[in-house]
Amino acid sequence: MARVIVVESKLRVRRRKRRLVFVLLGVGAVGIFVAILCGLSWLPFLRIETITVEGEKTVSQETIERTARERISGGYLHVFAKSNIFLYPRRSIEQDLIARYPTLATVQIKASTFKSIAISVAERSPAALWCGASVASSSACYLIDKDGVIYAPAVVYSSDVYQRYFGGTGDTLPRQFLPAETFRSLSALLATIAKNHGLTLDTIFIDEVGDVYATCTNGFTLIFASHEQTGEMLNHFTLALSADVFKTHGLADLEYLDLRFGTKLFYKLKNPEALP
After folding, report:
1. Is 3 helix (H, G, I), strand (E, B) or coil?
2. Helix/strand/coil percent split, the chain, to 5
3. CA quadruple 35, 41, 42, 43: dihedral sign
4. Which residue of 3, 111, 115, 264 shows the fewest CB atoms closer than 10 Å?
């Protein structure tokens, strides 16, 4: 069989060479541009040297600064300097500080100059204690802030200062015990009831479905649903006190008062024989 030899046109060859040249020039230009950026990122006058910290209380300034310096050491892919004022990992530093030190509620970082950054932190303040998944299995307590976040181990004497909460599980810190609004409302509600009726709260247990068991030092337990609005709950509790049983008995005479079932009222006397 005869072979047919096709000779490539000179024009096509020239076009192919031209495209190859353009590609090589493009790759070279990108390489030069990256090299320039890499060089600029390592310029001394654009690299962070000074880190200032403000707002710290329990977490030391040195600790926060050391963590930040760890995050800006080295380079991205060993090419671009992490300490460059335009390239430093701000968000990563903020997240790392909160993860390492749960006492910190917020961390904000901003550039002060071309060679310095300022770290502003706000620490959580204790509002209550979380002391375990159940009252029966009470263990070491942890601090809870006003927004219901469990964030740090509590010292022994804290149990005499703050209200003790129980329920839920988890080992990581920080973690949310209850949604912020729910916790704030619940704390305010129980404090109001205790104050208005001369009660001293001992333990507050929230079960897996959100029911609250608030037990007082006199042995009385108030049971209600945590999702109920504060105003509605107060009205419900006030109406409950108008029941016949309270004409001859006080809250201290009850083992529990259950308000979870709408207008229905369930209670149990500590001494049933005393019922008239």
Report:
1. coil
2. 35, 25, 35
3. positive
4. 3
Query: Which residues, including other chains, have CB under 8 Å from residue 129's CB and lie 6 or more apart?
Result: 141, 142, 143, 144, 154, 158, 159, 162, 163, 164, 165
At 110 the three-state DSSP class reads strand
Q: Are 205 and 212 in contact (CB under 8 A)?
A: yes
Amino acid identity, residue 160?
D
Taking the C-alpha atoms of residue 159 and residue 117, their distance in angstroms, rounded to an integer, is 40
Contact 131, 168 (CB under 8 A): no
Say whether pTM exceeds 0.85: no
- pLDDT tens per residue across span 49-79: 999 999 999 999 999 999 999 999 998 887 8
List 113's β-bridge partners, or say none.
116
Number of folded domains that form the chain = 2
Question: Are the CB atoms for 119 and 54 separated by under 8 Å?
Answer: yes
- Asked if 200 and 161 touch (Cβ cutoff 8 Å), the reply is no
Beta strands in 32-167 (DSSP E): 50-54, 75-76, 80-81, 104-113, 116-123, 126-130, 142-145, 149-153, 164-166
Task: Return left, alpha or beta for 197; rule: phi > 0 is left, psi -120 to 50 is alpha, else beta.
Answer: alpha
Strands 50-54 and 116-123: parallel
Whether residue 17 is contained in a domain is answered as no
Pair 246, 208 in one domain: yes
The per-residue pLDDT for range 118-159, each reduced to its tens digit, is 999 999 999 999 999 999 876 789 999 999 999 999 987 776
Regarding whether 170 and 59 lie in a shared domain, the answer is: no
